[in-house]
Amino acid sequence: MELSYWKARWQKNKTGWHMNDVYPHLPAYWPNLQLEKGSAVLVPLCGKSLDLLWLKNHGYRVIGVDISPKAAENFFRDNRLDFKTYTKSSFTVYKGDNLSIWCGDFFKLDAGFLPEISAIYDKAALIALPEGQRKRYAQKVLTICNQSTQMLMNTFEYEQDEMNGPPFSVFADELVELYGEHFTIELLHEESIMENLVKFQHRGLSSYLIEKVYHLRPGS
Ligand SMILES: C[S@@+](CC[C@H](N)C(=O)[O-])C[C@H]1O[C@@H](n2cnc3c(N)ncnc32)[C@H](O)[C@@H]1O
Q1: 208 Cα–ligand 1 center, Å
Q2: Of 55, 57, 38, 34, which Cα lies nearest the Cα of 46?
Q3: Which atom of ligand 1 approaches the CA of 107 most closely?
Q4: What does residue 205 show for φ and ψ, rounded to 5 degrees?
Q5: In the sheet that 84-88 helps form, which strands lie side by side, from edge to edge?
Q6: Is 47 in the pocket of ligand 1 (CB under 6 A)?
Q7: Which ligand 1 atom is the nearest neighbour of the CA of 128?
Q8: Which tens digit of pLDDT belongs to each residue from 17-48?
Q9: From ligand 1's centre to the CA of 47, what distance in Å?
Q10: For the whole model, what pTM was predicted?
Q11: Which 8-state DSSP code applies to residue 126?
């Protein structure tokens, strides 16, 4: 997807992916990571997700990245959190207490800008990207990981021929291709989500839609 596509979605308030609650699989499965409080968590393509707040409220230092200034501003204002802004390279950083959103192109994020990242929370980030961008995305993610970085992520699986993304369909074998060399990939949750199937029916989806949640631990 072009960045202009996402900016336009935000401008027109067409943010159907946004959830008004915390993603239920975050509190359910985050404990699997056994991450020390105070650790830094990166949330690529974060939007204005309430998951950022959940992570902060559970004691982590949270760094989100999104291309949309509207997403960043709305996040802080909706949640009545103070923030300052500053510029770092091509990013505008919205900085609050233990939570910042780096507004800019994730592909331009330099690991040197960031603290040691203990975990990456990929909620609807990899699956926001078409196949042609996913390898590049995963390679960028890998530049940010150190020996102990873990990931919690979700995917959707459906027949890609039935519907255009986003969200795109990402099967487990692709995850192995992208990350299998560096991580042990554990499936934590698998669910057929009928309500989303109905939501996407007008776009052509008809057969099935499965959501999966994975824990990626360093080492293969
Ligand atoms: C499907 S939404 C998911 C948002 C969030 N993770 C959530 O679950 O609510 C994808 C987000 O990625 C952002 N995005 C897409 N491409 C990006 C890029 N190259 N750099 C930074 N943000 C990007 C969009 O602005 C959008 O907010």
Answers
A1: 24
A2: 55
A3: 19
A4: -65, 130
A5: 84-88, 91-96, 99-103, 61-66, 40-44, 117-122, 150-157, 210-218, 183-192
A6: yes
A7: 1
A8: 999 999 999 999 999 999 999 999 999 999 99
A9: 5
A10: 0.98
A11: G
Kindly report, residue by residue over 144-184, the tens digit of the pLDDT: 999 999 999 999 999 999 999 999 999 999 999 999 999 99
Strand partners, 127: none
Cis status of the peptide bond prior to 167, with omega within 30 of 0: yes
Per-residue pLDDT tens over the stretch 188-198 = 999 999 878 88
Q: Which two tokens stand for residue 188?
A: 């934590």
Measured in Å, residue 68 CA sits from the centre of ligand 1 at 8
Mean pLDDT of the chain: 97
Residue 85: its H or E element: strand 84-88
CA of 106 to the centre of ligand 1 (A): 9
Contacts of 154 (CB under 8 A, 6+ apart): 23, 25, 122, 123, 124, 127, 211, 212, 213, 214
Parallel, antiparallel, or unpaired for β 210-218 and 91-96? unpaired
